[in-house]
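Quick entry between incubations.
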Amino acid sequence: MTNFVVGRLATTLAAYFVLRAILDSAAGEHPLPSILTAMFLLGIQATYNLLQSYNSGTQYATADVLDSLWTYLVGTIMPIAAGLAIIGAIINVATRRPALRLAGVALGLLSVAAIWKLVLAMVA
Amino acid sequence: MSFYNGILNLTNWSGNVILPTLAGLFIAIAIIQFSKGREYSYAMYGGFMCLMASGLLRAFETFASQRAWNDANLVWAAVASFVDWVCNVLLPIYAALQVAAGGLQLAGVTNRFQPISWMRHFAAAGLCLLVSGLLRLGEFFVTRGTGGVT
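Done. Structure below.
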């Protein structure tokens, strides 16, 4: 069952989302969410292995997995997403759309951990 | 296959392959807009920025690494660095461009292309170089104002 879902179904769904990205563009919407969904589906086995490697097997395993996932997102994925935000800001400048918001998003994605610490400091 | 590789390669491909190619298109659009007397600066600057995507990302990474990653003041430091860069690096360069544009306008070289007074270029150059002083002046007025009218 797992082999079927991960090996076949997820791949087919990813192909569907690639097609949907093109259709989203044709409808005037942004293709990026569909592209990222397709990538996530294609990498579902690696994500599963990653989550398994975070499992400490103790009574706090759930919190450990969530903590590690947070660190992975903030330290690895978000800085790359900041690059995508910069690219979006450049395209917005060239096409005369608001770009400062995406520049702020890029700064925010590069400092997620600090924003978390700031919120903690405000709450304390 | 992993999501990390996917998003990393997507970013690299967009920033290092697609944007430099689109730069040519945006410059072409800027020329066509210029020929029709329309606003062309967005496409022109956008074209140049397409060639500078990696550099801009490195600049933002520098802004966001002015403090330790877990320092709550990092957000403020990042925004302050960004403002400092815009006001003290970009605006003086823009001031030089405005002085050059004003000189060309005054000499009658570009006044057939754009009906902007040379005075506006020189005033913009002065304001670009005075931005810190104007901010301090505003702060001075507000500080004095907190005492109320006497």
